[in-house]
Amino acid sequence: xxxxxxxxxxxxxxxxxxxxxxxxxxxxxxxxxxxxxxxxxxxxxxxxxxxxxxxxxxxxxxxxxxxxxxxxxxxxxxxx
Length: 80
Description:
Layout: H1 2-21, H2 27-49, H3 55-79
Helix pairs in contact: 1-2, 1-3, 2-3
Protein backbone atom coordinates (compact mmCIF):
# COMPACT_ATOMS: atom_id res chain seq x y z
CA UNK A 1 0.00 0.00 0.00
CA UNK A 2 2.86 2.40 0.76
CA UNK A 3 4.31 1.82 -2.70
CA UNK A 4 1.01 2.74 -4.36
CA UNK A 5 0.77 5.87 -2.22
CA UNK A 6 4.37 6.73 -3.15
CA UNK A 7 3.49 6.46 -6.86
CA UNK A 8 0.37 8.60 -6.42
CA UNK A 9 2.32 11.30 -4.55
CA UNK A 10 5.00 11.15 -7.25
CA UNK A 11 2.45 11.54 -10.03
CA UNK A 12 0.72 14.48 -8.33
CA UNK A 13 4.04 16.16 -7.47
CA UNK A 14 5.28 15.75 -11.05
CA UNK A 15 2.02 17.17 -12.39
CA UNK A 16 2.22 20.15 -10.02
CA UNK A 17 5.85 20.76 -10.93
CA UNK A 18 4.92 20.63 -14.62
CA UNK A 19 2.25 23.25 -14.02
CA UNK A 20 4.63 25.46 -12.06
CA UNK A 21 7.54 25.22 -14.49
CA UNK A 22 5.95 24.86 -17.93
CA UNK A 23 2.22 25.19 -17.58
CA UNK A 24 1.47 21.55 -18.46
CA UNK A 25 2.07 18.01 -17.30
CA UNK A 26 4.15 15.27 -18.88
CA UNK A 27 1.66 12.43 -18.96
CA UNK A 28 1.11 9.93 -16.18
CA UNK A 29 4.40 8.06 -16.52
CA UNK A 30 6.47 11.22 -17.02
CA UNK A 31 4.85 12.87 -14.01
CA UNK A 32 5.58 9.80 -11.88
CA UNK A 33 9.24 9.76 -12.87
CA UNK A 34 9.69 13.49 -12.29
CA UNK A 35 7.80 13.30 -8.99
CA UNK A 36 9.66 10.25 -7.68
CA UNK A 37 13.09 11.63 -8.54
CA UNK A 38 11.91 14.97 -7.18
CA UNK A 39 10.85 13.31 -3.92
CA UNK A 40 14.37 11.98 -3.40
CA UNK A 41 15.92 15.31 -4.38
CA UNK A 42 13.49 17.25 -2.19
CA UNK A 43 14.18 14.97 0.78
CA UNK A 44 17.90 15.48 0.29
CA UNK A 45 17.57 19.26 0.01
CA UNK A 46 15.21 19.50 3.00
CA UNK A 47 17.71 17.45 5.03
CA UNK A 48 20.58 19.78 4.10
CA UNK A 49 18.50 22.82 5.05
CA UNK A 50 17.36 21.23 8.31
CA UNK A 51 13.68 21.23 7.31
CA UNK A 52 11.26 18.44 8.09
CA UNK A 53 7.91 17.52 6.62
CA UNK A 54 5.37 15.12 8.04
CA UNK A 55 2.29 13.40 6.72
CA UNK A 56 0.77 13.23 3.30
CA UNK A 57 0.81 16.98 2.64
CA UNK A 58 4.41 17.28 3.81
CA UNK A 59 5.46 14.47 1.48
CA UNK A 60 3.63 16.13 -1.38
CA UNK A 61 5.28 19.49 -0.68
CA UNK A 62 8.73 17.91 -0.43
CA UNK A 63 8.26 15.96 -3.66
CA UNK A 64 6.89 18.99 -5.50
CA UNK A 65 9.76 21.24 -4.39
CA UNK A 66 12.25 18.58 -5.45
CA UNK A 67 10.52 18.11 -8.80
CA UNK A 68 10.53 21.86 -9.47
CA UNK A 69 14.25 22.00 -8.67
CA UNK A 70 14.82 18.99 -10.94
CA UNK A 71 12.94 20.60 -13.83
CA UNK A 72 14.83 23.84 -13.30
CA UNK A 73 18.17 22.04 -13.41
CA UNK A 74 17.13 20.17 -16.54
CA UNK A 75 16.12 23.44 -18.25
CA UNK A 76 19.47 25.04 -17.34
CA UNK A 77 21.40 22.07 -18.74
CA UNK A 78 19.31 22.00 -21.92
CA UNK A 79 19.96 25.71 -22.59
CA UNK A 80 23.71 25.14 -22.57
